[in-house]
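Appendix B. Chain record.
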Amino acid sequence: MSNFEITPEFQPLLREHGLDSFDAIMQRPVENVMRSVPGRSTIRLPMGIYLKRYEPEYYPLLKRLWHHDEAEQEWRMIHALLRTGFNVPQPVAFGRRGAQSFVMTLEIAGGIDAEATLLKRDTAGRHALLESIARVSWRFLEAGFIHKDLYLRHIFVAGTELYFIDLQRAIGPARFAQRWHVKDLAALAHSVSRLGLPDADLLPALRQCGGDEALWRRVEARMAWLNKRRPKYIGVWDNPEKSQAKY
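Structure tokens predicted for this chain:
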């Protein structure tokens, strides 16, 4: 199975840089690595485009048998969220051939992840940002989406706008059991609490958005479990100036 798509407005740019074919993109030399785990890497290209590539070793056998591909999933979810009115990285190109695949997205101009943004703000600024994160995250779930990796680092702040990124595991729009909402809400609230800032707590802002006490008890129980969980990847960042992966 193979597929290759380029968003029309980016065709001239990719052609200029010799990146207008599946093979050329997959064979692009590794440079400026942002993150890498076995079988998957994300690099930033000089023209302000992020390239995420997947190799067969990344996928367990069952995912290969189901023809599941995270690059294709992210490509689909970017378009689904754009149609629903959410901010996401602009789609540039996608390709898949067997168990090899890639997805390209445009850099978010002026964007910085919400974790780094919180750490830089004063108390009032943190409260304002947490309220905005709570509102957009609640709207995301109510619109029928599940992220599966909803952490502060996967929400980018650009001015007053918030963007969802790293959508390779996201699903929707559909109706989902509450346990999926609990997982996303707990992951997001946990990623705030682990910063250790005394004036940064997302739960109060989330509670104001809706939900009953039964939901929030489940969220708090999930957060307690996350506090004890061992990280999936440790020490996988290729750039020594980057922090280690913690999720």
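Further analysis of this model is presented in Appendix C.
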